[in-house]
Amino acid sequence: MFKLIDGKAHSARLRGEIRARAEKFSEACGRQIGLAVVLVGNNPASQVYVRNKIKACEEAGIKSFANYLPDDATQSQVEELVTSLVEDSKVDGILVQLPLPKHLDEKAILDLIPVEKDVDGFSEQNIGRLCMNRDCLVACTPNGVMQMLKAEGIDLKGKNAVVIGRSNIVGKPMAMLLLNADATVTVCHSKTENLKEICRNADILVAAIGRAKFVTADMVKQGAVVIDVGINRNAEGKLCGDVDFDAVKEKCSYITPVPGGVGPMTITMLLYNTVCAAERSCKL
Ligand code: NAD
Fold it and tell me: Residue ranges per domain, the chain?
C-alpha cells in the first residue's frame, strides 16, 4: 500500500512557520521582510506565476515589490531596475521571473543579483556552495522535495537515488541535495543508456523531465519512493506529471501526485528562502 505525499499539507504547515518568522522579523527589525519580483513582458504562464507569488507573500506577511517591464524593455532598462533593487535595503530577496524575452541576456541580468538576495538559489555562488555542502540559498523546487522527504521521515542514507533530468534549476541541485543527504546518486538525462535498468534500481526516483507518463511501472522498483516534479498537460488538457501515476503508485511506498505534490512546495520554499535571507541580513 502506497502513501500519498501531500504537498499541500506540507506546504500549509511550513507556511505557518514562515508567517511566524516574518512576524518576529517585523517586530525585531521595524519593517516587513521584502521580496522584489521582476516580470518582463506578458508571457501568460509567467503572469500567473508572479500573481501567485505575490499572493503567497501577502498571506505570509512578506511585502512584495512587483516590477513590470514591457516585452521590448532593453537590456540596460532591466539591469538598471535590478541594480536599484540590489541597493534597496527594504528588499531582502530578488526574483527575476524566467524565461526572459529572447533579446535579453539572461545570465548578465541574473549575475547582478548578489548571493545574499538570490532567493531562487540560481547564482553560481549559491550553486557552488550547495556542491560544497555549505550554508546557502537552495533552488526552491528541489529544496521543497527535500523538505517533504524529511517531514515524511524517509531515510536517504546509503539509498540509491536516481534523478531523471539534469537542468540547473531542478535536476542538478536535486542530485546535490540527495548526495549531501548521504544517498548514492545517479543522474540520468536524454542521452542516458539503459535508463529503465538504472531506474529499476532506485530506492528514491525523482522525475524532472517534462514529458507526461514518461515513468512507467516497469521502470519502478517495488517499494520505491517516487517524486514527480513534472508539470505537463495531457491530451485532454489536464495537468499531469512525468509519472504514469495510476500504474506506478501500486509499486511505491510513497508517491507525490500532480497536482498537489511538488508544485505547492515551490512557492513555499521561495518564501522560506526570503525569510532566511532577511534574517541573515538583520542578523536575527
Ligand atoms: P528542462 O527541460 O530544463 O530539463 C529536462 C531534463 O529532462 C533534461 O535534463 C533532459 O536531459 C531530460 N530528458 C529529456 N528527455 C529525456 C529522456 N528521453 N530520457 C531521460 N531524460 C530526458 O526542464 P526543468 O526545468 O528541469 O523541468 C522539468 C520538469 O519539471 C518540467 O515539466 C517542468 O515544468 C517541471 N517543473 C516543475 C516545478 C514545480 O514547481 N513542480 C518547478 C520547475 C520545473
Answer: 29-115, 140-263
Strands (E), 116-220: 160-164, 184-188, 204-207
Residue 284: what pLDDT? 73
pTM of the full predicted structure? 0.96
Q: Check residue 138 and give its pLDDT.
A: 98
Which ranges of the chain have pLDDT less than 70? none
Q: What is the pLDDT of residue 198?
A: 98
Give one DSSP letter per residue of 81-136, joined into a string. Answer: HHHHHHH-TT--EEEE-SSPPTTS-HHHHHTTS-GGG-TT--SHHHHHHHHTT-S-
| Distance (Å) from CA 69 to ligand 1 centroid | 28
Q: Ligand 1 within 6 A of 144 CB?
A: no
Residue 97 a catalytic site member: yes
**How far away, in angstroms, is 112 Cα from ligand 1 center?**
26
29-115 CATH pick, 3.30.70.1150, 3.40.50.300, 2.40.30.60, 3.40.50.10860: 3.40.50.10860
For residue 147, indicate whether it is catalytic.
no
188 Cα to the center of ligand 1, angstroms: 11
Is 249 assigned a catalytic role? no
Is 190 near ligand 1, meaning CB less than 6 Å away? Answer: yes
Cβ atoms 33, 278 nearer than 8 A: yes
pLDDT tens sequence across 214-228: 999 999 999 999 999
Q: Dihedral of CA 40/44/45/49: which sign? A: positive
If DSSP codes are grouped into helix, strand and coil, which group holds residue 253?
A: strand
Cα-Cα-Cα-Cα dihedral sign, residues 19, 263, 173, 96? negative
Helices and strands (DSSP H and E) totals, the chain: 10, 11
Closest ligand 1 atom, residue 267 Cα = 40
Task: Write down the catalytic residue from 32, 92, 97, 203.
Answer: 97
The domain made up of 140-263 is a member of CATH 3.40.50.720:
yes
